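Ticket 4471: requesting a sanity check on a complex prediction with flavin-adenine dinucleotide. Repro inputs:
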Amino acid sequence: MNMRITKHPILGDIEYDRKVKIYVDGQELEAIEGEMIASALLAAGIKTFRYTKKHHAPRGIFCGIGRCTDCVMTVNGMPNVRTCVTPVEEGMRVETQHGCGKWKEGAGDE
Amino acid sequence: MRVWDIVVVGGGPAGLCAAIEAAKNGARVLLIDENSRPGGQLFKQIHKFFGSAEHKAGVRGLEIGLQLLKETKELGMDVWLNSKVCGIYDDNVLWVVKDERKSFQVKGAAVILCTGAVENSISFEGWTLPGVMGAGAAQTMINVNRVLPGRKVLMVGSGNVGVIVSYQLLQAGAEVAAIVEAAPRLGAYGVHTAKVRRAGVPFYVSHTIVRAEGDGKVERAIIARVDERFKPVDGSEIAINVDTICLATGLTPLAELAWIAGCKFVFNRVLGGHVPWHDRYMATSKKGIYIAGDITGIEEASTAMEEGRLAGVSAAAAIGLIDTERLEKIAGEIWERLDALRCGPFGENRKIAKQQVMAGGDEQ
Ligand SMILES: Cc1cc2nc3c(=O)[nH]c(=O)nc-3n(C[C@H](O)[C@H](O)[C@H](O)COP(=O)(O)OP(=O)(O)OC[C@H]3O[C@@H](n4cnc5c(N)ncnc54)[C@H](O)[C@@H]3O)c2cc1C
Ligand code: FES
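Returned C-alpha cells:
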C-alpha cells in the first residue's frame, strides 16, 4: 500500500530521491530522508503503533504534533519515543511498543 | 547561564514575527522551538489567507512561512530548534531541554511566550481506535509529510479547521464521506464551506458521532441526529464506511508556561478557555513576560502575526530600544490592522472577547 501524495494541485508533484532504510519490527521499510517515523509508517499503511498496558488496545497517531504521546514506539531500543516528531535515520530500528516498553541496555547513550 | 535581550518561546507565525520585530529594532534575540523546523502550524496552511494585501491576503500560509524564515536568517538571530522550554523561574529564567538530552538555563530581559494551541478532542465509543485523529493531525500528515492517513474520511466539526482540512484532504486525493456538525448551523466562513459543498461533500447538521467501529482500526463511523440538548436521538443512527475519523472540535490555548510563571488568567469561552490576561501591548501581569498568538486566545495565523509584531515591539520598548512615542505609533498601526482582521460575524465576537480579556474578565 502506498499512501504517499506524490501529486498535489497546490504543493506540486514530488519525486523522492533521498531514501533511507529503517526496520519496523524487523521488516525493512523504505523511508524518505528527513520525514517523521509516523509518516513513513502511514505511507506503508501501518496504523497501529503500540498496544496499551492494561487492555492491550491498539493506538496510532492522534495529534500529529507531539502533544498526546499516543504514537510512541520503541526506537533503537529506547521506549516511548514520539514517532510523529522524530525523523527517520538510516538503519533505525522501530518496534511496536507493548505497554510502557522496555529499555534496551545502552539505548540512548551517546 | 546565557543571557539575551529577548527570548521568544515558540516559532510559529506569532513567535517568528515577534522575534523578527525585536531583532529589527536592535535586540539580541533567541528563538526557541521544540520542532526540527520552525513555522509552527503555518506550513500546513496551504489555503489562501483573507483580509487586505497588508494582511497578506491571497497568499498561502506556507509561502508566508518561507518569507518569515528568510527574514529570521537575514537578521542573524539565534535559533534553537529541537529545544523544549520545560520551566520558567523568577526573573525570566527559562529551563530548556535540547535534543532530548541537554539541559540549559537561559535568561531574557524580556520573554515572549508564543506557544500556540492544542486540538480538543471529544470521546465516544471506539475513539481510541487507530484512525481516529485530530483534524490538525490529518492536516499535518497530508500537507507537511505528504502522506494520507486514510482514504475515506469522516470530519467531525464544521468550523474553519473542519472545512479547510476537508478541502485539503480532497486536494490530497482522499474522499471525504461527510462532515457532521452537532450545532444546527454550519460554523465556518462561507467561502470555505462553499468549496467543500461544491465538491459534493454531504453536511449533516444537528448530528454527532456516536461510535467508531472496526477490528483494530476504524472501519465504520456511526453518526446520529441530536436533539436540542445535543443528546443522540434513538433510531436515527447512520453507518458510514470510513477508515479515518477526524475531530475538528476546537482548540485550547497552550498556556502552561504562563501558569507556571504566575501570570493572571482570564476565562473566555470564545477564545478557547483560560488565557493569560494581557494589556494592549501584549504584556502579561508578570513583569517582562509578553504573549502573542493562539496562547492569548484561538484565532488565526494572520492575527497571530500581528500580535507577534506587537509583542516584539513592546518588549523592545521595555528594554529601552524604542521610545514611548514610537511605540505608541507602531502599536496604533498594528491595532488598526488587528481590528480590520477581527471583523465579520466571527471576527466581531473575537474582537469583543479580546476586549473582555484586556478589561480583566473574571479573574481566575
Ligand atoms: C494542528 C493545527 C492545525 C491548524 N490549522 C489551521 C488552519 O488550517 N487554518 C487556520 O486559520 N488556523 C489553523 N490552526 C490555528 C493556528 O493555531 C493559527 O492559525 C496559528 O498557527 C497560531 O500561531 P501561533 O504562532 O500562535 O502558534 P503555532 O503555530 O502553533 O506555533 C507555536 C509553536 O511553539 C512551539 N512550542 C509550544 N510550546 C513550546 C515549548 N514549551 N518549548 C518550545 N516550543 C514550544 C510549538 O511546537 C509550535 O511550533 C491550526 C492549529 C493547529 C494546532
Ligand atoms: S500523535 Fe500525538 S504525540 Fe505523536
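Notes from triage: The CA atoms of residues 133 and 246 of chain B lie 5 Å apart. Leaving this open until the requester confirms.
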